[in-house]
Structures are given as C-alpha cells and as structure tokens.
Amino acid sequence: GVTLGGDRSKGTLVDVGLSQNVLVEQIVEQGKRVTVAMGTNRDLTPACVRKVVPQSSPSEEMGSYWGYKVRYASNLSGVINDSPYKEGYDHIIGTSEHGETIISSELILPSFRHLLIAFGGLAGLEESIEEDPNLNGKGANDVFPCYLNTCPNQGSRTIRTEEALLISLQYFQDPIRRAGMAS
C-alpha cells in the first residue's frame, strides 16, 4: 500500500487498494510504499490495527511473488556485475531481435536461484554493449551466454521495451517453471 497523511496519533493510514484504508501501528512518512500484513481478519475499520512488515515477507513466508525491485546502474556491466545477490546471477539472458530464435517449448534453462533477463532500449542491447567501456570489444554473445529473440516475426522495425517485456515474460514462463529453482 501507500501511506497517507493525516492524524498519526494512533498510527498511519495506508491505502491498500480496498474499499477502506487500513491503519498500521507504525508511524510512517506520507507517500511511502509499504507491505502490510493483513492477516485473516476482514475488519477494515481503524479498530483492527495492522503492521508494516518487510517487503520480503510474502516471498519468504508464503512463497508468493511480491513484485520486483528497481536499481540504478550506470552501464550494462554494472547491471550484470553489481548484482544485489552476494553470489551474483546464476544465469544471464539477453533479448534482442538479433538473438537466436528458439521456440519457448524447446528452450531449456539451467536450474537457477537468481536469473537476469536484459532488455535493450530502442537501439538494443548491442548499443548498450558498445557504449560500455568495461565491455570494450565484446559482442552480445560474449556478454550473454544465452542471447535470444523472444519476439520473432514481430512485423515492425522495433518493439517498445514495455511491449517486449510482457511478450518475453510470457515466452519465459514455461522454461523458467521447467528449470525450477536451485536450492
């Protein structure tokens, strides 16, 4: 939810997308994104005070997907090498109209814990590689062990990144499920 302004004497009101805002016991600055433990009590009135929990709680406690995180990287090598995971990424995939075309049902991914799927902008990942001084002289196949065209026969010169993202996530759904997660 998103924290709201107003009286903070009993906690903070949070808009969690339901018919009423909910009250959490913590005092949180207005406009902050928070994860609220809703529990099983359906009472949305301020009499039922809830708690803000770490963003990772739904994933860790229930195995539920709970959104993605965004981080800034000054170049492509920063995206790959400055992983938020201590052990880095297990598997890295680049997407491009110049990548290899493999039917999704035939794509075999290794088991992984942390997967990175990279999407280029209008000029593609190729330009991101060329502009990165840390990747000087490398080609896309050098940077990405798996370099795929997830939108073959697209019928237009370019696909916007936000379109390619949705198409590619659907493309990868079954291969990721088949790969499973490494322990």
Automatic annotation (TrEMBL):
It holds the Pfam family Methyltrn_RNA_3. Signal peptide: none annotated. SUPFAM superfamilies: alpha/beta knot (SSF75217), Nucleic acid-binding proteins (SSF50249). Belongs to the class IV-like SAM-binding methyltransferase superfamily. This is tRNA/rRNA methyltransferase SpoU type domain-containing protein. It comes from Aegilops tauschii subsp. strangulata.
